[in-house]
Automatic annotation (TrEMBL):
Keyword Transmembrane listed: no
Record SUPFAM superfamilies: C2 domain (Calcium/lipid-binding domain, CaLB) (SSF49562), vWA-like (SSF53300)
Gene Ontology MF terms: calcium-dependent phospholipid binding; metal ion binding
Protein name from the UniProt record: Copine-8 isoform X3
Gene name as annotated: Cpne8
């Protein structure tokens, strides 16, 4: 007798009937994991024990992650046109193309617009790249509409005509099948002898498979996660409830929430789960020297902590032993991580530094110089601002609007992501929701920053290890 195995929300059931009610089926156990755990495992294959039935071994389950190939392809295309309608009174036309993806409800969404070619009825547009997802959402037979316009300075562009095609048609490349008549429906309805308003021809069509962040992780690239915590006096006395470092026995403080939210996701991409944890802006025992680069675990030769829980423990221990002081200097911890990143530039490792801070930065010039230098390395910096302070300097370091510069040199890449923690505090008091939102936005830029480094250095992902093949067993049947 054969039985179907069903899985829902990480729980396994032995399906004995076609009823959708899971209470009618036999519960075989459950598995809890994050998507990051699966993706971060070797070969994106995770094997976990099934639990949930006391005193009983429930076996194991193997989970694998795979990206859809059709959504990772990009197309490099080039078009030209011939004998387009003349629209300008004193000249010819200034034509451009607008591409539309059709949606399932029959509507259309703009997905690309070419540049304008001035004063010609026979334009040749530059080649452009567009993802297959944007062009047709991976559906090769979905309609693609192309409209041809004559550009006008005041924005009232004149419609020349349109045509439709599909990814499948375009994939034939330059041929008689990809010469399209540009038709203006209004002119066609008014003029009996109207044929078309010109033609558009596909000159080239090249498919490229875009490598992704996950390709590098599958190929063995390690993400090295380092934490740096602000121990300056502006945080307030940790023994007082008003302090941002207050050690509340019942819930995490803002620093703890930021560490846990970001760290628990990043740690899934690190095989040994050992993280350097640093502090800055404190006086250290026994001599009271001020340090902007000290190990939270008290061991400068080995500042590694075991997992995010180990980082949290070292953080709380440091609060009891060091004296909060100042100033707020970032450059030492950035340079600390940069020293490691500078020694591994082959794509096998990438470094992420999380800085959690409360205040106005004191060494802005030095920090900018450190960021400009680090932008050449396999490295990203996340800054989480806690407390009510103004964080104008952090926004400047983020570099989304204006790239960070120092001494006339601009950062090679945007490597800094800043978020103020107060924007993520859930009004209902749901800290889990706050942490999830924070982690999502804080980590949003890391994959693209990672890829920008790999592309700039021409580093391709290593091949993923071969898929797991379970051992074959000889089944013996006793008669």
């Amino acid at each position: 007798m054969y039985k179907e195995l069903g899985i829902k929300n990480g729980e396994r059931y032995d399906v004995d009937s076609k009823s959708p009610n899971l209470s009618k089926h036999d519960f075989l156990g459950q598995v809890f994991c994050t998507l990051g755990e699966i993706v971060g495992s070797q070969g994106s294959r995770l094997e976990k024990p099934i639990v949930g039935i006391p005193g009983r071994k429930c076996g194991t389950i193997i989970l694998t992650a795979e990206e859809l190939n059709c959504c990772r392809d990009a197309v490099l295309m080039q078009f030209c046109a011939n004998k387009l309608d003349k629209k300008d009174f004193f000249g010819k036309s200034d034509p451009f193309l607008v591409f539309y993806r059709s949606n399932e409800d029959g509507s259309f969404t703009i997905c690309h617009r070419t540049e304008v070619v001035k004063n010609t009825l026979n334009p040749v547009w530059q080649a452009f790249k567009i993802s297959v997802r944007a062009l047709c959402n991976g559906d090769y037979d979905r309609t693609i509409k192309v409209e041809v316009y004559d550009w006008d300075r005041d924005g009232s562009h004149d419609f020349i005509g349109e045509f439709t095609t599909s990814y499948r048609e375009l994939s034939r490349g330059q041929s008689q099948f990809n010469v399209y008549e540009v038709v203006n429906p209004k002119k066609k309805g008014k003029k009996k002898k109207y044929i078309n308003s010109g033609t558009v021809t596909l000159l080239s069509f090249l498919v490229e498979t875009e490598v992704s962040f996950l390709d590098y992780i599958k190929g063995g690239t390690q993400i090295n996660f380092t934490v740096a915590i602000d121990f300056t006096a502006s945080n307030g006395n940790p023994a007082q409830p008003t302090s941002l470092h207050y050690m509340n026995p019942y819930q995490l403080n803002a620093y703890g929430m930021a560490l846990k939210a970001v760290g628990e996701i990043v740690q899934d991409y690190d095989s040994d789960k050992m993280f350097p944890a640093l502090g800055f802006g404190a006086k250290l025992p026994p001599d009271g020297r001020i340090s902007h680069e000290f190990a939270l675990n008290g061991n400068p030769q080995n500042p590694y902590c075991d997992g995010i829980e180990g980082v949290m423990e070292a953080y709380y221990r440091s609060l009891k032993s060091v004296q909060l002081y100042g100033p707020t200097n970032f450059a030492p911890v950035i340079n600390h991580v940069a020293r490691y990143a500078s020694s591994v530039k082959d794509g096998s490792q990438y470094f992420v530094l999380l800085i959690v801070t409360d205040g106005v930065i004191s060494d802005m010039a030095q920090t900018k110089e450190s960021i400009v230098n680090a932008s050449k390395l396999p490295m990203s910096i996340i800054i989480v601002g806690v407390g009510p302070a103004e964080f104008d300097a952090m926004v400047e370091l983020d570099g989304d609007d204006v790239r960070v510069s120092s001494r006339g040199k601009y950062a090679e890449r945007d490597i800094v992501q800043f978020v103020p923690f107060r924007d993520y505090i859930d009004r209902s008091g749901n800290h889990i929701l706050s942490m999830a939102r924070l982690a999502k936005d804080v980590l949003a830029e890391i994959p693209e920053q990672f890829l920008s480094y790999m592309r700039a250095r021409g580093i391709k992902p290593s091949p993923a290890p071969p898929p797991y093949t379970p051992p074959t067993h000889v089944l013996q049947t006793q008669i």
